[in-house]
């Protein structure tokens, strides 16, 4: 028996005891075709590339004896930016470094050296991480390498999920379902160009065969988002659910509230779970038991950022005709700044916060007062999290904080840290200001409804307001063009 297998190295143990279980737990990694790698002594894996998570997912499917004998090709200039990042890559996967634009240096030299020593390699023939969900043409280097080692099998692999879990444009890992589809090995024949094209075709065929229940639904249009705002006890959750049900009269509506709900034909239907949503709801429960505003702040911010990712996932996987938000991450965070610094949230400051959080802050100078007043915004930008979605329409359910407090007390549950008359009054002012700025400065329709009305009356008024707006984004919803049914 191979000594490396009898005595696993420390990096191999890290993969086995930590990385594999964590990835499986967080990303629900499903593997199809693992047997195609089982009996190979060495190989060249070729896969699509959308994320830095791709390599770790590929290491999930490697036979144990290959964990320290397989080397992914990686761009040296990217990982050399951080001494720790380079060390970690070398410790975990021992990459074949490629220096892009390296002059006369042969980019295949390191790969040849590893294959000549009986090792295996992982190549991403697109050359770099592409746009999420898209696959670029393969470069012919893999074909030329296969021509030099015709006895080494080339194994095509298609990855789905990493483009959402860790896309190129973001740095935050988002738990979401992933699948690794491994195809049968191919052996070189013909020319390098022909074989490259054959490998690309094999990966595309694997993409077409992804398990149907997890494939993205085809979308013909971007679904509009309707944000329902209101302080706790205003009835916004009840209104959001009623609107999602009504707007699904002749289609599909998604509701993002404490959980995700799916409606079709005016009725609730089962929605396949997203792992991101499980993490978000766990954070949501954590915020509800926070003992102070200070301890409430960070988990609530994280939950709202994840909620925005959930909306992206809903668009891609459920293909709804409309998304109803029980609170908008962008608008909620902006209004909540007034809870922590009420005196600082002027109309101009509110607009600056909205621009930063929605990714339009590049026009703001580094010394803009918004960064001094709300230093957390600079952190959000540095983490590349400032890209929160802007809703297509906003409904604000306005209610007196005293009425809200009576409703909250009637629940018989322990009150949250912010559920006091004074704090709810601050939040109410924050939402009012946000709605004025959203409509006046961003040109997004924002309407106020009387939250003191009964649930059915409020829902009727909301539908009337949406009809009056005659927004093109909502024109395809039959519930807004025909007589509304309470169904």
Cα end-to-end separation: 69 Å
What's the story with the biggest beta sheet? 7 strands, mixed
Shape: elongated
How many H/I helices? Answer: 20
DSSP summary, beta strand count: 14
Tally of distinct domains: 2
Beta-strand percentage? 5-15%
Features of the shown structure:
14% strand; single chain; Glycerol-3-phosphate (1)-acyltransferase; alpha/beta; 14 strands; 7-stranded mixed β-sheet; disordered N terminus; 20 helices; 487 residues; 2 domains
Task: Please characterize this protein's 3D structure.
The protein folds into 2 domains: 3-214, 3-Layer(aba) Sandwich (Glycerol-3-phosphate (1)-acyltransferase); 225-480, P-loop containing nucleotide triphosphate hydrolases (Rossmann fold), CATH 3.40.50. Helices cover 45% and strands 14% of the residues. The chain contains 20 helices and 14 strands. The chain has a 7-stranded mixed β-sheet with strand order 1-7-6-2-5-3-4, sandwiched between helices. Strand 9 (252-256) and strand 10 (260-264) form a beta hairpin. Helix 2 (10-27) crosses helix 4 (53-61) and helix 14 packs across helix 19. It is elongated and about 75 Å long.
Quick description:
The protein is α/β, with parallel strands linked by helices. Helix content is 45%, strand content 14%.
Per-chain topology:
Elements: H1 3-6, H2 10-27, E1 30-32, H3 35-38, E2 44-47, H4 53-61, E3 70-75, H5 76-79, H6 83-93, E4 96-98, H7 109-116, E5 120-123, H8 141-148, E6 154-160, H9 162-165, E7 179-182, H10 192-208, E8 225-229, H11 236-247, E9 252-256, E10 260-264, E11 267-269, H12 275-288, H13 293-317, E12 322-326, H14 329-340, H15 347-357, H16 369-373, H17 376-382, E13 393-398, H18 401-410, H19 421-442, E14 445-450, H20 455-469
Parallel strand pairs: 1-7, 2-5, 2-6, 3-4, 3-5, 8-12, 8-13, 9-12, 13-14
Antiparallel strand pairs: 6-7, 9-10, 10-11
Helix pairs in contact: 2-4, 8-10, 11-20, 12-13, 13-14, 14-15, 14-19, 18-19
